[in-house]
Amino acid sequence: MSGSVASPAEHAGARSSITNDQAAQKHPWRFWAITIALSLTGLLSTIEGTIITSALPTITKALGGSSAYIWVPNAYFLASLAILPLVAQASDIFGRRPLLLMAVALFILGSGLCGGATSMRMLIAARTVYVSNI
């Protein structure tokens, strides 16, 4: 009976050899490229959601829509909260890569629409295009 149960020292030795083997393996360059690309995508999404608030007074003055001031940043956040569960389920069905590529394409489209906005309504609508950029 005692021969079938491993001692704590044997368990510790087994665990350390596994971690040493795992530590010896190096990740290929592709792993690091993907990790950096995903990190930059997440950073851009976070910055895009919050940076507009510092430029918003100037934008509102240029477009003349002070009554819709609050909707410019909130349109992005409300729409992203509404679509987040749908995008999560779609990524389970279709995979993450096609949805990430679509999100980047919509980010570029939304950036162009926001840059060309001629009214506050158009700016708010363009901000909601960013929604899939989660």
From TrEMBL:
SUPFAM superfamilies: MFS general substrate transporter (SSF103473). Residues 34-134 form the Major facilitator superfamily (MFS) profile domain. Gene3D superfamilies: Multidrug resistance protein D. InterPro entries: MFS (IPR011701), MFS_dom (IPR020846), MFS_trans_sf (IPR036259), Sugar_transporter_CS (IPR005829). It comes from the Eukaryota. It is a multi-pass membrane protein. It is found in: Membrane. The keyword Ribonucleoprotein does not apply. Residues 1-21 are annotated as: Disordered. Keywords: Glycoprotein, Membrane, Transmembrane, Transmembrane helix, Transport. GO terms for molecular function: transmembrane transporter activity. The chain crosses the membrane at residues 31-56, 68-87, 99-124. GO terms for cellular component: plasma membrane. Belongs to the major facilitator superfamily. This is Unnamed protein product. It comes from Aspergillus oryzae (Yellow koji mold). The lineage of its organism: Eukaryota, Fungi, Dikarya, Ascomycota, Pezizomycotina.
